[in-house]
């Protein structure tokens, strides 16, 4: 998984071609930390998707600019545009897989 920050978000997500999944998380979010192994497992299976993660405590304004208002938030981008997301209690491995399959 690619670690995102303010410096590389534009290159890795907004200028990317194809599907990019961004796992928005932070250290204080226990559901985020519990979900992370599932997201990392999906990254090994879904080879047509670029997987990234962004610690929102280090890039708060960036997260807000992407309309990330609650955590966990798993957002899917296609050709640089956000096309879908699963958030909060809907953020599960199964729901993330379904979201990805819609766009493959």
List keywords for this structure.
29% strand; globular; single chain; 4 helices; alpha/beta; Glutaredoxin; five-stranded mixed sheet; 104 residues
Low-confidence stretches: none
Distance between the termini: 19 Å
DSSP strand content:
25-35%
Q: Quick one: CATH class of the domain at 1-33 and 47-76? A: Alpha Beta
Structural class: alpha/beta
Quick one: biggest sheet? 5 strands, mixed
Task: Write the element-wise H/E pattern from the N-terminal end onward.
Answer: EHEHEHEEH
Mean pLDDT: 96
How is the largest sheet built, in terms of strand order? 1-3-2-4-5
Briefly note the CATH topology name of the domain at 1-33 and 47-76: Glutaredoxin
Can you tell me about this structure?
The structure is a single chain. The protein has 104 residues and is α/β, with parallel strands linked by helices. The chain has a domain of 63 residues: 3-Layer(aba) Sandwich (Glutaredoxin), CATH 3.40.30.10. It has four helices and five strands. The protein has a five-stranded mixed β-sheet with strand order 1-3-2-4-5. The radius of gyration is 12 Å and the shape is globular. The mean pLDDT is 96.
Mind sketching the topology for me?
Layout lengths: L1 E3 L4 H6 L4 E7 L4 H16 L3 E7 L4 H6 L7 E6 L2 E7 L5 H11 L1
Parallel strand pairs: 1-3, 2-3
Antiparallel strand pairs: 2-4, 4-5
Give a quick precis of the structure.
The chain is of the alpha/beta class and about 100 residues long.
